[in-house]
Each structure stands twice: as C-alpha cells, then as structure tokens.
Amino acid sequence: MKRIIIGTRGSKLALVQSEGVMEQLRTIHPDHTFELAPIKTTGDKILDAPLSKIGDKGLFTKEIEKELLQGNIHIAVHSMKDMPTMLPQGLVIGAVTKRLDPRDVFISRDGKSGPGLEDAVAVATGSLRRRSQLLAFKPGLDIIEIRGNVQSRLKKMTDNPKIDGIILAYAGLARLGMLDIVREIVPEEIIIPAVGQASLAIQVREEDESARSLVAPLDDPDSRIAVECERTFLSELGGGCQVPIAGLALVRGESVTLRGMAGSLDGKTVYRGMISGNVASHCAIARDLAVRLLDEGAKIILDEIYGTTPK
Fold first, then answer.
1. Cα–Cα distances in Å, from 116 out to 21, 87, 98, 163, 304?
2. Which strands form 255-263's sheet, in the order they lie side by side?
3. 3-class DSSP state of 247
4. CA atoms of 117 and 125, how far apart (whole Å)
C-alpha cells in the first residue's frame, strides 16, 4: 500500500475541495492511502491588502507548487481560477475535475428576503473583474473592498451596516453546503465569471507517471476543454489579478461557446464578445476572441493598466 500526500491550501473551502478529491481517489485506488497536507500561501498570509497590490502570479499556488517540485507532496489540489496561465517548469495539470455552476451569486446582508443586486447601493468584493462589471451594470454603485475566506468575508459584510450585499462564487458555497444564503444567481450577461471558476486543478510533476495515472480518472474532458479555452483567452490578454478580465466557455457536444470581457477598473469601458466553434479548435477560437477585443479597444485599457500589453 502506497502513501500519497495531497497538498492544499488550509482554508475551509480548500480543505473541503481537497477532501472530495481524496475520497474519489480512495474509491478508485483502494490499495493506496491518502492524506492532506495544508500549506499556507502568500495570498493566505496577507489579508489586509487588495490582491492586485500584493503581486499577481501564483499568490495562492506558489508555495504548494514548491512543495510538489521538491517531492514533499505527490499531488496538489488548486481552485482552477487561482492557477497562473503559465505553470512552473516540471509541473502539469493531471486532471481538471467536473465543473460545478461557474456563475457568481449575490448574497444580501438582510438575507434571502433582502434587496437584490439591482437595488443594492453598496456591494462588497475584492475582485477587479467583479468591480468592473458591477460598475458597468450599475454606474455609481459603491464598491467596498473585502478579502478573506468565505466565512470571514460574510462576517465582514454582516459587521458593516454600509454593505448591502456581497458577490461570491456559486461553486464555493455549493461545496460548503451554504447555498441557502444565496439571494440570487448573477447571470453572465451582468458578470462573466473568473476564468476556471468552479473547476479544480489537480497538479502533478510532469515526470511522475505514477501520480499522473493515479489522477487521470478524475479528468472531465468537457471541463478541461472549457477551462483550456478560457485560460488561452486570458493568456492572450496577459491577464491576472491586476486586470478586469473574465471568460466563460460552455461545451455542448462538439461545440464550444466562449464569452469574454476586458474592462476598465472603473467599469466605464467594457469590451465583451462571444464566439463559437468546434471543440477541436477551442484554443484557436479563444485567441480569435482575444484579438477581436484587443482590436476593438481593449488594448488601450490593458496598456493603461500594464504600461504595455504583455505577450
């Protein structure tokens, strides 16, 4: 019997996600033992500053990936939306888990009977992507910066009488069994989700054929295609935590449809687009949509944020 150590962030949501993966692996591989190794990341340590101010690449993955590269853990479980588009040399995504509902939700401070997003005056979020799209939807909305895990963000909202509600991911609440607090699901016409949202990335060392074989049964082909499409779109725009960029790909049979956006920080200028194609060309259509938005004017916004559009 072989002992397999699974690296994960230590938040309640991360542990729930990783425990779910571990239980699946135990069922598939009863001849192995599995255990979790919680690892604190930079994003977990610095909670008093916006993500866009403390760095970008690998805020929630770098320390875990270091342990994986050093062989201290065999497998790493990440929220796909936390994964940089460029992986460290020697690491690969061995499986993309079946995606849950990728949309965002609005939670009212006054509960399910409280005002909805359309009536809110002040909404909390730490995401530039959400901020830009919220301000485009409702100019003049007061956006209140808020960070932390799901439970701490909800407490901060409850403790602040100025906040009418908060935007969170449906999938995280579903995994925590907290969907009963959702006031409404926000349609993608208002807020396109984060790239990779609602999927998990199971990362392994490229040369570790045993670990790759171990996690391969957890790979969901449609989810992988959708996520690869979104991540290609993000990569072409050079995006990360510092830029309001969003993408959502949906696979239906042999077809994939990608919605994408890039916007200004104040939401006054938002470029959106949608493109469809065959799943075999999912990366190509993602690049096509990125180029289209850049040509329409998104390049100007990105240049202002980055200094120059990265490639």
1. 34, 39, 30, 12, 33
2. 245-252, 255-263, 270-278
3. strand
4. 13
pLDDT digits (tens, 9 = 90+) for 171-219: 999 999 999 999 999 999 999 999 999 999 999 999 999 999 999 999 9
CB within 8 Å of 48: residues ≥ 6 apart: 147
In the set 82, 104, 164, 208, the catalytic residue is 82
- Assess whether 82 carries a catalytic annotation: yes
Strand order in the sheet with 142-144: 142-144, 122-124, 165-169, 104-108, 184-186
pTM of the model: 0.92
Interatomic CA distance for residues 206 and 182, integer angstroms: 40
DSSP for 4-15, please give it.
Answer: EEEEE--SHHHH
Q: Residues 257, 278: contact at Cβ < 8 Å?
A: no
